[in-house]
Amino acid sequence: MDFLLQNGSLSVRRLKEKDKLLLAKWLSDPKVLEYYEGRDQPFDLEKVDSVFYASDDDEVKCMIEYDGIPIGYIQYYELDKVTKREYGYGSEKVFGTDQFIGEVNYWNRGIGTRLVTSMTNFLINQLHADKVIMDPQVWNERAINCYEKCGFKKVKLLPEHELHEGEYRDCWLMEYNNPNLY
């Protein structure tokens, strides 16, 4: 296996064609959709294909494995100039991530904290990020608590930032600074 990162039983690898069925399974589960994409936006194979495989965006799309079992999804990307300006950044090298654990029986086991810490370290040490950001919705306390445990700080409220279940929701811009620079 070609893993981008490994931390004990946790590993992250690039998305493969065979992962489509798992993504469709996870992204049609109302428990997962409540936090990622919205319960009004279930995915089928066609939607998974167009969003995760046919798009030519700059996101690096990956699967999360635990003890060799695929359990979730993470993507990372370097912010473009427009997004950096929107968030108030200048010339810093800023990366963002989005993630979810799709196998709900792996929730509340500390895996998200290990994942976020591992990916943040990868982005800083391997890709030389100055900052890593995330933008969880303000009501998603479980995600916010996880990110804060990993050293992220709330830096800016983003009003009506994300369409979720039919309404624009406020999000927190959360940031982790490369400790070698600050």
From TrEMBL:
Family matches, as Pfam families: Acetyltransf_8 (PF13523)
Keyword Acyltransferase set for record: yes
N-acetyltransferase domain segment(s): 10-179
Keywords: Acyltransferase, Antibiotic resistance, Transferase
UniProt cross-references to InterPro entries, sorted A to Z: Acyl_CoA_acyltransferase (IPR016181), GNAT_dom (IPR000182)
EC number(s) recorded for this UniProt protein: 2.3.1.-
GO molecular function: acyltransferase activity
Top EC group: transferase
Name of the protein in question: GNAT family N-acetyltransferase
Upper taxonomic lineage: Bacteria, Bacillati, Bacillota, Bacilli, Bacillales
